[in-house]
Every structure is written in C-alpha cells, then in structure tokens.
C-alpha cells in the first residue's frame, strides 16, 4: 500500500512511540475502524436498507462522497418511487439519513459493499442480502470485559 510521505512518517512515529511496528499500528487502526462502523451502523428495517442501498447505487470510495451519503439517500427517497417499492416511510428514513454522522455514513458505505457481495451470490434476494450486510456476524462481536470487583479492605466496617 502506498501512503503519502507525511502519513507514512506519522505511522512510523506512532509505531516508535508504541514500541511497535507500522504494521501493528495499521492493524490496530483498521480494527478500530471496523468496530466503529459496526457500532455506528444505523438501525433500519431490512426493507429500509434495501431502499437505502438502491438509492446509493454503488459503493462510494472517497471521503467527500461518503460524507454526503445521508443527504443523497434522503433526496433520492424523497424524489423517487423507492419508498413505495419497499413500503417504507420516506420522511422517517430521510430525516434519519440527513442526521447521520460521518461515522454512520462510513458504516453505511461499508454495509453497501457487503450488500453488493451478498447480492452477487446466486439465489440471494435483496432483503436477504440487506439482512446479511447489516447483521454483525457472531464471530465479530466483542465480548464485554468482565467487571473486576474491587478488593475488600481488611478490617473495614461492613455496611448494615
């Protein structure tokens, strides 16, 4: 992968600070990004996702396009027959889409890529592809760390 020189130097500096390698730092950032996109994925019905994915058409790649996903989806849902086709409330989904954060827009872009991959499998319809694209696989669910109880102080008075 080719990076601009300033980003390459920043990664190297971070790796040195962490007493690690640039590959480890990149891996850490990619894992964080993946976690953010799963956590930030908007909550929609399968049919609403189908309308969103159809409105998007393709997978946006650049930051500028991703930043406008919510506005683009909202406009297309308001100006086309997609809400009727998918039996969804255009106003509700459009309002939600306009309020998506950049993190949510990234999550939608990533879900769009998964939707396209799922839809390419013979026999998979749009609703099933949307479900697959927006349901986090069990293997990717992070376990919540167990709460550590504070050690009791010896000789402390018990509460009654």
Description:
- By secondary structure, the protein is an all-alpha fold.
- The protein has one domain.
- The chain contains nine helices and no strands.
- Helix 2 crosses helix 8.
- The longest helix has 19 residues, at 22-40.
- It starts with a helix and ends in a 26-residue tail after the last helix.
- The model is unreliable at 154-160 (pLDDT under 50).
Condensed summary:
62% of the residues lie in helices and 0% in strands. With 160 residues, it is mostly helical. It has one domain (16-136).
Q: What would you report as the Rg, rounded to the nearest angstrom?
A: 21 Å
The total of helices stands at 9
Global morphology: elongated
Major beta sheet, specifics?
Answer: none
Report helical residue fraction: 55-70%
User: What is the total number of structural domains?
Assistant: 1
Strand content: under 5%
Contiguous low-pLDDT stretches (5 residues minimum) are 154-160
Order of helices and strands: HHHHHHHHH
Oligomer: single chain
Could you tell me how far the N terminus lies from the C terminus, measured between alpha carbons in angstroms?
Answer: 63 Å
Structural class: mainly alpha
Mean pLDDT rating: 87
Using DSSP, what is the number of strands? 0
């Amino acid at each position: 992968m080719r990076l601009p020189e300033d980003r390459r130097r920043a990664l190297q500096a971070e790796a040195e600070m962490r007493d690690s390698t640039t590959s480890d730092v990149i891996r850490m950032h990619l894992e964080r990004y993946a976690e953010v996109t799963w956590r930030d994925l908007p909550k929609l019905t399968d049919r609403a996702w189908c309308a969103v994915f159809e409105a998007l058409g393709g997978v946006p790649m650049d930051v500028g396009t991703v930043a406008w996903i919510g506005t683009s989806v909202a406009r297309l849902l308001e100006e086309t027959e997609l809400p009727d086709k998918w039996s969804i409330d255009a106003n509700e989904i459009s309002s939600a889409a306009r309020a998506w954060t950049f993190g949510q827009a990234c999550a939608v872009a990533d879900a769009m890529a998964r939707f396209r991959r799922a839809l390419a499998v013979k026999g998979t319809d749009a609703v099933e592809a949307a479900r697959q694209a927006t349901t986090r696989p069990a293997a990717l669910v992070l376990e919540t760390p167990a709460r550590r109880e504070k050690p009791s102080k010896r000789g402390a008075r018990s509460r009654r």
